[in-house]
Structures are given as structure tokens and as C-alpha cells.
Amino acid sequence: MSRLKQFKLPDLGEGLTEGEILQWMVKLGDEVKLNQPIVEVETAKAAVEVPSPYAGVVHEIHHAAGETVDVGSPIITFDTEPGAGPLDPVATASAVSEHPEIGDMVPRPPAEGFVEPGLHAAATSDESGPLGALIGEVGPSGRTATLVGYGPKSVTAKRRARTDSGHATPAKPPVPAVAPPPPATAARVSAAAVGQSAAASAGALTVLAKPPVRKLAKDLGIDLTTVVGTGPNGSITRSDVEGVASQPAASSEPVPSAPLRSVPDYDPATREQRIPIKGVRKMTAAAMVGSAFTAPHVTEFITLDMTPTMELRTKLQGLPEFAGVKVTPLLLVAKALLLAVRRNPEINATWDEAAQEIVVKSYVNLGIAAATPRGLIVPNIKDAEQLTLPELAAALQQLTATARDGRTQPADMARGTITITNVGTFGVDNGTPIINPGESAILCFGAVRPTPWVVDGQIVVRQVTQLALSFDHRNVDGQLGSQFLSDIARVLSDPATALAWS
Amino acid sequence: MSVKGSPLAPATETTPVATSSSAGPELVQLLTPEGERVSHPDYDIDLSDEDYRGFYRDLVLVRRIDVEATALQRQGELGIWAALLGQEAAQVGSGRALRPQDFAFPTYREHGVAWCRGVDPLRLLGLFRGVDNGGWDPQATRFQLYTIVIGSQTLHATGYAMGITKDGAVGDAETGEATIAYFGDGASSQGDVNEAFVWASVYNAPIVFFCQNNQWGISTPTANQTRIPLYQRARGFGFPGVRVDGNDVLATYAVTRKALDDARTGQGPTLVEAFTYRMGAHTTSDDPTRYRLATELEAWKLKDPLERMKAFLYKQQIVGAAFFEGVEHDADELAARIRKGCLEMPDPDPLSMFDSVYAEQTPLLGQQRESFGTYLSGFEGAHA
């Protein structure tokens, strides 16, 4: 028995086929105790810490953080007898082969036998999260999406071969992926067309068609990915398939394309990087698209002299109440926003399309857009309007630290009511922010710069910034949005206003 | 319906649902989170130092079994595991209150009760490793097989309890029998549980309904299951309910013992709501950080069932450091034993799945068994 032990990624949920390595908690050469957490893995169901099954020294880490690993693949190798002298290279080599894939007792026809023409597995496509395919359907990479419960094992699992001799009940012969076309349509479905259809379907996620229509297409030898659906949600109907079947054969012949000018050869593998769309990126994209194309955005700008606020900031920082917390410009902008919300409560609202109601909230869960190692997130400070300035400063500091550590929990991001995004930290003047879904406004805080400014008819250098406010024009009229933005600017231009409004 | 020692709590329309970290004034408690022993007018008990040591030891060992099993699942050695982390006192307290003749009907999370009934933890792991369908003898241990379906064991337990009455095994304070049905706050919304309440009530069945309200039915908070404290539900069905601090092993023991004794002497059912908290995930397939705040978990950590018992033993100088070291040592040995035993469990013969479907083999099942055997022998390297 070798002293080198491999640990393969187990099925951490029920019926999961892969997991993404979030971070390693050990590195090469580390001594590890039994059950010591070694790696954090995120699956479709949960992000979990995996404890070490062995005591020993980390000999090899097979997959770096960020990689998505199939269940059953080795992720780490331990030397379980590190005190026993240097490793024998032969033993090292044999150790790997000592862990053959465990035979799968379940024989099954080739996966293609189950796959609809339109659902062809694309061998090179890497990404098919459960969202990529319908539950229970096979995604582009050949994996079957699971929601809960026991999903199928990965089709790449090795299994013992069936013997061809014998008394065993013969399994049905594998069904070919594309049924041989009946003679009537043989002319149209040439070998070239079949090859082309496989290539065309590589990029297609799925097609919508009822089972009888799929059967019809299969019988006619028609690749459903080449058919334009006219049914509900773009689904393919019987008449769509029949329409394609009645078209002249020439239409499906490949058209040889002569390049207009010679293009230098290039290898996409070396000059392009393909990053799977998943996790935070996927959620961000869905939220942004949902917001941008649902809420009619209006963005207004205001440029203001923030010098009094910047001076106040220095004064506040010296007070004992602010010992241990930082008084940042963002903090004072947040406070100004909270005061402005109190004067303009309708800005702090949700458009409830389903209920046909506008929900005006008496609490402010103040979202702060944060760039984190895992992408953009918007955690919020719950009931921010009830906090004193030192409490708000502490909450802001805590929120930022948690986000930076990647420890923000989903509940911390839920139920936000209004958001600030601080692009000024990147030295940017301003932008037109997109509203966080479920909210009605977002304030963008630009960089504060020494700028020539007119005071009492004289040009002097002042600390100037620009604020931008995007609001949902369905429930926020120009007057309300303008009033709100101008109120924020008033507090920042003259912080004494804050006392007047407190 | 006679009013028993455990009072029928006044269920007013305005009683608010307690928030998940505060249980309200009606909570029966004998040991505070700080480890102070307090008295209660209805549930005071006298316990020996030996009893106290035994309670603590069981709490530690049960938690260790649970932690080791969770690790084994993460390492791919178990298909799934339902952790009891945080609920040790509710299970050990109620489990130790059972008498040898009493019968327990568990969910799939009652590892602590199983421990108190003398079920080897390895038997539990066999089920979660998928090598058997529950390998302990329910008759010998008086501990039914785990029920995966939510709440249906309450009906099984009620039926069994009605049988006890028909057997005339109710009435004697020493030899009378009782059943206890375990379920959770989520199951309290199930039809089965409510039907069990009706049957148990009108037949005055010798049963204790033991609800571990751990605040979460997977991701559903208790506030979405009920508008009144769960123990008050019993009143509508016509039997008493009581809420006990489920993180207090002594109070849970006292309340459950009283309820079981009421049942065995013919006074009918009681609903015990053990107010506790699921500190871990629902099962290893779940990620609680997706639906609950970290602050809630932190608040409950201050009420940890083991820590308060440890503090009590220290403060009362019942034990010294050597005792705690000894218990830790036993826990380490137990963990090592179940790890080794789990890894060594043989895979079952695939044909054995036909053995326990019916008490007697049917012709159809025999045919299926035979053709499956032929099929299996069709693989390379298969024994013919």
C-alpha cells in the first residue's frame, strides 16, 4: 500500500456532478491533521469546507482555486508517512495508477442514444451549469442538470465492459444519434448535412419542442436546431417541422465561402480567453439586464463644492465618538442621502409590478456597491436611518471588511432599498449607474478634486465633486428625483443643513 | 379531559410568536445558558452527581458522533448526513427520560436518542452510507427505524400507542408503556402530524409528541409555519402542551419524563415543544448561509447545550479537569472507532435488495431477482 493517498472530489450534495474550488486552505508541504478543513468547494447547492480524510503532508494539489472539477477527479494527494524518508519515484508513479476509477455497475447505452438531435453534447464546451439546461435535460457538455435528489452520474465514468459471449440478457443495441433517414428524404439529408447539423448544434443550448414534434423531426431526419420556432416562447411546432421538410434540398447544402481578403491565421486558444459565465458574474448580469430593461432610467447630475464637508470630516475624526472608526467622504455622503430620504420618502420605494403597487418603505436598507475578489456585490446596512453617525461609520467599515474578505452572506445583500456606488475611489468623475433591482434610485459618488470654483465673484480652489442619481421614472418623477439629489448636495455643500433637518 | 400537572397554557389570540432567539416567559428551564441551576414549580427534579456526569458525557459523545459523520460525508464516505448540531440536549434529555419498555419513533435526525437507546452509531452510518436500509433491531432497541418522510412517524407512533392501550399495558406507574414520536417545527404543518394529534387525543393514547423546534424547516423559518407558539397547538386538539428549553438537558429530561409518566398512567398525550436551534445545515446538501443571518447563529452559540452543562459542572465543583479530559478521550476513541468501522463496511450484495421487501418472497420478486442475477453475471470479471 502506497504512502501517497489521493483524495477525489466527492459528491457533496445529492447527485451533483461537479464543484468549483473556491480556495485552498493548505499548500504544498503543509502538515495536515485528520478532519482539518483543507478546501472550500462550491457546488450547485452549497459552498462547503471539506475536511481532510487523511493525516499527513500535502504532496500535490491537482486543481487550483477557481477551477471547476468533476466529481471523482483527484484534487489533492497526501504523503501519509512524511517521516519515512524520501519518496521512491517508482512508488510515486504507481501510486497514481493504484487508484483506478471504481467500476460503475450500471451499464447504459452510449449517452448519444438518449440525446435529442437538438441537444447534442459539445465536447469542447466547458460550461453547462444547472441553469444552462432544463432540469432533467442534458446540457451542452453532456451533463444532466439536477435540482435536487439523485442525479445521474457523469457520463464519462468508466464502467466494466459487458461480455459479448454468453447467457446474459442482451441489452438493446445502442440507438444511433440520428436515425437513418427514410428513403423519401434521403436526398436532402446528405452526410454533409448531418455533419453540419452537429456543428450547428454545438452552440445551441436547447430547443423547445413537444415530444411528438421531436419524434416527427427525428423521423424526417431534421435537426431541430436548424428550425425556427413559431410556437409559444419560440417553441417549434409540427407545422414548423413540416415546413422545413417541404423546402427544397438545396437550402441545406453548405455554401462554400471564398474569403474576400486573406486574414492572418490565428489560434483562438492562445489569443482569446474564454471565461465561463457563472456565479457572481451570472447573477450580476441577470440583475443588470433585468433592471436596465425593466425600469426606465433617468440620470441627473449635480456638481458641488464639498469643501465644508471635507473640513467637517477632519473635525469629526478628532472626536472621541469616532475613535476606532474612519470618517470617510462616503460616510458623509451616506448620511446626506439618509437625511434626503427622510425629506423625500417616496424615493425609497419598490415598484411591485405583480401587485400593481408602489411599496414605500419607512426603513432604509442602504446598499453599498462593493468590488470584491469574486465580483460586484451590493451588501446593505439594515435600518441605516436609525443609526447615529458613529454607528453608521462602524457599520460601513464592517460591511466593507466583510465584502473584501468575501464573507458577505446572501442575507446581507437581500432587501436593499437604495444604493450608493462610489466610483470616486477609482479617480473617476462620475457615471450613469444602473439601479439595483427592487429599488428606485442609486447615487453615484465621483472623485473629489481640487477645482477652480467661483466664490463671491472670485475664482478660488475648492474641493469639488459630482453626484449622479439614476432613478426609476415609473414611480419617481423628475421633480422628486431632482429635489432628492439637490437635498443631498445641500447637506454636503453646507453640513449645517444637516442640523436643520435632524 | 383532565388538567394535568403541566398546565394548559392560556392560548390568547394576541400571544405573539417568539422570535427565533427568545422563547418567551413560558419556557421551562432548570439550567440557564450561564450554567446556573434554577427551580421550576412543576418540574423540579433531584439528580445525583453521577446523573449530571452522565448527561454531560452523553452530550459530548453524541456531538462527536455527529461531527465525525459530517466529516465522513464531506469526504465522500456517506451519501448524506442530517446533522443534529445544537440539538444534543433535546435528544439526550428526552432519550434518557425513556424507560426500557417505552418505544421511540424517530425522524432521520435522532442520533442522540439512538445513542440513549443503545443503538450503535455505526448502524446509523450504514443507512447514510447506503449499505443497508437501517441495520438495527427496532424491537430489541425499542427505537424504530429512521423515517425519512416528514411527519408520518407520528401516525405510526399513535397507532402503536393505541395498541398499547388495547393490550392493557397502560396504568401502572412502573410497568406501564408509552411511546414518543419525534418531529420538527416543519413537520408540525403536515397533515399526518395533525391527524396523529386528533387520533391520539380522542383515543387518549399513551404518547408524547416531542417537537424539536429548531427554528428552521430547511429554509423556512418557524414564523412561516405558525402564528402561535407551537406548544399551544395542543390545546385545540384537547391535550396539554408545554414548551421547554431544548438546549437545557435537565429541563428536557424532567419535562419529557413527566409527560411519559402521564402517558403510561393513562392520562393521555402531551405535546412537548423543545425550543432549540439547528446550528448546522438541514443536511449536508444544504447551505444555511443562503437564507439566514450569521448574527442569529452567533446569538444561539451563547446558548450552547454543552457549554452550559460544562459551566454548571465546573461551578458546582462536581468534577475536575480530569473528568473533562476523560470524556474527550472517550469521544476521540469513539470517533476513531466509527470512522474505521464506516470505511470497512462491505458493499452489500446487489441481490440482497430483494431479501427484505416482504417477509416472504413472492413469485414475481423471485423472477426479478433471478433475471437481475443473470444480468449481473453478464459483466466481465463477474462471478457467474
In short:
Chain A is an alpha+beta fold and 502 residues long. In chain A, 25% of the residues lie in helices and 20% in strands. Chain A has three domains: 4-97, OB fold (Dihydrolipoamide Acetyltransferase, E2P) (Beta Barrel), CATH 2.40.50; 183-253, E3-binding domain (Dihydrolipoamide Transferase, Irregular); 279-501, Chloramphenicol acetyltransferase-like domain (Chloramphenicol Acetyltransferase, 2-Layer Sandwich), CATH 3.30.559.10.
CATH architecture tag of the largest domain in chain A: 2-Layer Sandwich
**What's the end-to-end separation of chain B, in Å?**
66 Å
- Percent range for β-strand residues of chain A: 15-25%
Gross geometry of chain B: globular
* Approximate strand percentage of chain B: 5-15%
- Record the strand order, biggest sheet of chain B: 1-2-3-7-6
Helix content of chain B: 40-55%
* Average pLDDT over all residues of chain A: 78
CATH topology of the largest domain in chain B: Rossmann fold
| CATH class term of the largest domain in chain B | Alpha Beta
What oligomeric assembly is this protein in? heterodimer
Radius of gyration from the alpha-carbon trace of chain A, in angstroms: 31 Å
Tally of helical runs of chain A: 12
Question: Which value, in Å, is the CA radius of gyration of chain B?
Answer: 22 Å
Structural class of chain B: alpha/beta
Q: Termini distance of chain A?
A: 75 Å
CATH topology of the largest domain in chain A: the name is: Chloramphenicol Acetyltransferase
The secondary structure category of chain A is alpha+beta
User: How many domain units of chain A?
Assistant: 3
Give the SSE map.
The complex is a heterodimer of chains A (502) and B (384).
Chain A: E1 4-8, E2 18-24, E3 31-32, E4 37-42, E5 47-51, E6 56-61, E7 68-70, E8 74-79, H1 89-97, H2 191-202, H3 211-220, H4 238-245, H5 268-271, H6 279-292, E9 297-305, H7 307-317, H8 329-343, E10 349-352, E11 357-360, E12 366-368, E13 370-372, E14 375-377, E15 380-381, H9 389-404, H10 410-413, E16 418-422, E17 441-445, E18 449-455, E19 458-472, H11 478-493, H12 496-501
Parallel strand pairs in A: 12-16, 16-17
Antiparallel strand pairs in A: 1-8, 2-4, 2-7, 3-6, 4-5, 6-8, 9-19, 10-11, 12-15, 13-14, 17-19, 18-19
Chain B: H1 49-74, H2 88-97, E1 103-105, H3 111-116, H4 121-129, H5 138-141, H6 152-166, E2 179-184, H7 191-202, E3 207-213, E4 216-217, E5 220-221, H8 233-237, E6 241-245, H9 249-264, E7 270-275, H10 294-301, H11 305-315, H12 321-343, H13 363-376
Parallel strand pairs in B: 1-2, 2-3, 3-7, 6-7
Antiparallel strand pairs in B: 4-5
Helix pairs in contact in B: 1-2, 1-11, 1-12, 2-9, 6-7
